[in-house]
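SAMPLE LOG
Freezer: B-3
Tube label: C17
Construct: single chain, 114 aa
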Amino acid sequence: MDKEQKKALRAQYDERKPDMGIVCWQSGARMWIAISKDVKADHNGSLFQLRLGSWPNRELQKAFTEDPDSFQWSVLKTLEYEERDKDHSEELELLYMICLEEHPEAQQMRPGRK
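STRUCTURE (predicted):
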């Protein structure tokens, strides 16, 4: 791959508009949710950490280790946005609170973070 192709791919990556929203790992009646600024990246990263056994939420990690096939990943709510470079933290926080109201049994996916 030459420098021009690398530069074009880098520009394309930088211009992308990743899906943002509230993501969920669920196993039976147990549910863990979190805010995500890049849904695909968070799915790949969390799955890697769970398979490795290094997820910071011990309860989620233990449940995943016991029965990984029972887990499902989903996006509960997606944030519709126009400006890629704008900070969407407040809107994501509002979506998170709405999801907590809709799913009172849900727990934080990552300790200390939403």
